[in-house]
Design brief:
Structural class: mainly alpha
Helix content: over 70%
Number of helices: 2
Oligomer: single chain
Distance between the termini: 63 Å
Shape: elongated
Mean pLDDT: 90
Largest sheet: none
Order of helices and strands: HH
Strand content: under 5%
Number of strands: 0
Radius of gyration: 30 Å
Number of domains: 1
């Protein structure tokens, strides 16, 4: 009975070691791929968008901008 238990414990530790090593290799591979993507495909700077008002009064645009700004500050 003790021989069977010791074989089971050895098998358990062998399995846990294999899973642990696999997870370490997986984290290493993900970090390496992240490094490669950041190096060869850097983020592009944000482009500016020009919006035409199309005949809308500048006071209306200012009021809407102020309302949006106030809403965003209130609902963070």
């Amino acid at each position: 009975m003790t021989e069977l238990m010791s074989s089971g414990i050895e098998l358990m530790f062998a399995g846990m070691t294999i899973v642990f090593l696999f997870l370490i290799m997986l984290v290493g591979a993900i970090n390496f791929m992240s490094f490669l993507v950041q190096r060869f495909f850097p983020e592009q700077p944000a482009t500016t968008v020009h919006v035409t008002t199309g005949g809308v009064d500048k006071n209306v645009i200012a009021a809407i901008s102020a309302a949006v700004h106030q809403y965003r500050n209130k609902h963070k």
